[in-house]
Design a protein that fits this description.
about 220 residues, mainly alpha, Serine Threonine Protein Phosphatase 5, Tetratricopeptide repeat, about 60% helix, cytoplasmic vesicle
Amino acid sequence: MAADVHAITLISRAAFEVDDYERIVHILHLRLSKFDEVNWRGSYKALVLLEHLLTHGPQRIAEEFESDQDFITDMANFSYVDDKGFDWGSSVKKKAERVIELLEDRVYLKEERARARKLTFGIKGFGSFSQNVSSTDGTNSHAVLRSNSLLFGDHHHHHDVELESNLLASHEYSNLLATNKRMADDNLKGWSTTYRSHGYAMEEDHPFWDKEHQTRVSLLSSV
């Protein structure tokens, strides 16, 4: 049930666009609210994505998910060990506790966002940011279309199949997956030539980033 790192990266980039932002947060709100001891897998994967969005996505994400803290707190109390002896409860608990800390402590959140930027731009070849996201060989498109493994996974629990099937078939989720490839190709436009040439994209160069003495209009502020 490992997360697709490349898919997470594409989704976090798409979150800077108004329409995709709305689709992403809608799905995450829904998944977190559906958490229980039977249907926990989708909620856990939504939590994994939320953690990444908090440190790599739009700043508004923290405010957006303050209302979900009760659901996330419930996840921190989850207990489950599978038939192979793996303690999923512990994994869910640790992830939930980290997300709660990011939501509640804005100083810590700011530090983690700065740390994420430093790691992303300070290490050549870091993760999927070093990949040629503008390639046209179809590889990225195939990877993104498989990104349902991020939120829903390839190994469905029999109690969770109906809910997951409904969400996978939703018009909103289909649109999100279909547009991720386009977003990966397009959202480098407008960023500095220096960082674009290395496959990087600084948050400060993003059209929605507000800088002192040079404020850029954020479309997300109108959502």
